[in-house]
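4.2 Preliminary Data

To establish feasibility before requesting continued support, the project team ran the inverse folding procedure on a target of 418 residues. The structure was first converted into the token representation described in Section 3, and no sequence information of any kind was made available to the design step. The complete token record follows.
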């Protein structure tokens, strides 16, 4: 009988998955106290130095990171499992998340609902060569780098050592920012297309169309599963009752709901959906500026983006969200007794370098990552979000043939997913 391979539910993390109450590791209380103290210090700093939205965004980021880690909710292995063996269980959780998101986003965008009475805009971006190339690059990169943008942040929070390398080279977004005018101005591109405002459907009609598309994708994934007889994800036992909020694994549907709600709250708080990779471009550009490069002269840092380059990184809402995600994942991993640094090898380090660069560069070309373009774009009724998903899937397919070169596994039809 062929032995099966044990794979994490939704990402590439190597941390043990709790099987029952007795299998749970003890909470790492010193780490929890340290994380809470760090979070409190950062929160107090933001309250005293930044705009009122920033402390709230830190809290929302904490919630996002906590949710991502507890459910191991990601995009990288969800795409990989679907492309390799036809398992679409995690992909269907994406459809649930998107369905709730568009339901919440529609009235917020239609009526400009905001906590701070500022403008509210979704992520609606152009469709052109830049998007196609960038999303395809990102699809390859996330399969080599071991995680997407959100997966990188929460894996770092959980202590997965190789992901620190991915995060460092994710600042390839800086190079993408420098080259962006070439991709967007010198190559063919269409104007941004919103299903709600560019088609005459309005937000009500766009919502109906979106829900129909999500249902169709979920149905197609079920048909493919049946046709390919793909292996199912085995249930992951966890704690029960209120304890499950803090320890053990969350079901994917619960995380899908939580992430959609938190993204809607983010939209109302900062006037834009959840995003990740623009902060990487900012961090890398500030570092380049420190070493004497004329970053301010780049086209990317003209106009609306210019103020961010001249301000503190703590004034950047995406940066604050990112810090919150990392800290939230750290607290979640410590609560489950799972935080520990993992081993780094030459091969997985090389894959992380290449993957990080591809994702960083690709995210800028594609106007976002799996969060800003795929999640945020589709939730904002933007056509570019759907195209991003298709091209990232295509990049994933190519990466299935590249992963073994770096000693990375690829799911096989007889593997058991737990």
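Position-by-position output of the design step:
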């Amino acid at each position: 009988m062929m032995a099966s391979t044990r794979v994490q539910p939704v990402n590439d993390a190597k941390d043990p998955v709790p099987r029952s109450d007795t299998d749970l590791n003890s909470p790492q209380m010193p780490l929890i106290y340290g994380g809470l103290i760090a979070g409190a210090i950062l929160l107090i700093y933001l309250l005293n130095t930044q705009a009122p939205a920033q402390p709230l965004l830190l809290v929302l980021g904490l919630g996002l990171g906590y949710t991502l880690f507890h459910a191991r909710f990601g995009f990288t292995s969800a795409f990989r499992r679907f492309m390799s063996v036809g398992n679409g269980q995690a992909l269907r959780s994406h459809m649930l998340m998107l369905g709730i998101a568009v339901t919440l986003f529609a009235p917020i965008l239609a009526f400009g609902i905001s906590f701070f009475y500022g403008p509210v805009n979704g992520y609606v971006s152009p469709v052109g060569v830049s998007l196609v190339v960038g999303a395809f690059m990102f699809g390859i990169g996330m399969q080599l780098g071991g995680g997407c943008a959100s997966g990188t942040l929460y894996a770092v929070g959980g202590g997965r050592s190789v992901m620190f390398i991915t995060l460092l080279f994710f600042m390839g977004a800086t190079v993408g920012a420098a080259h962006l005018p070439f991709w967007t101005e010198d190559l063919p591109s269409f104007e941004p297309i919103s299903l709600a405002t560019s088609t005459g459907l309005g937000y009500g009609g766009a919502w109906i169309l979106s829900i129909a598309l999500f249902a169709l994708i979920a149905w197609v994934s079920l048909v493919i599963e049946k046709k390919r007889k793909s292996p199912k994800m085995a249930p992951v036992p966890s704690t029960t009752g209120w304890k499950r909020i803090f320890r053990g694994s969350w079901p994917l549907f619960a995380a899908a709901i939580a992430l959609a709600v938190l993204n809607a709250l983010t939209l109302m708080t900062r006037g834009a959906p959840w995003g990740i990779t623009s902060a990487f471009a900012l961090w890398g550009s500030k570092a380049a500026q420190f070493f004497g490069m004329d970053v301010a002269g780049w086209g990317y840092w003209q106009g609306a983006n210019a103020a961010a380059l001249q301000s503190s990184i703590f004034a950047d809402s995406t940066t604050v969200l990112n810090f919150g995600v990392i800290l939230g994942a750290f607290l979640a991993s410590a609560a489950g007794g799972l935080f520990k640094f993992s081993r780094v090898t030459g091969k997985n380090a090389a894959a992380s370098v290449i993957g990080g660069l591809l994702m960083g560069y690709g995210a800028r070309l594609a106007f976002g990552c799996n969060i800003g373009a795929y999640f945020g774009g589709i939730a904002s009724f933007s056509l570019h979000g759907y195209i991003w998903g298709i091209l990232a899937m295509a990049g994933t397919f190519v990466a299935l043939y590249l992963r073994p070169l770096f000693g990375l596994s690829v799911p096989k039809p007889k593997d058991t997913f737990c």
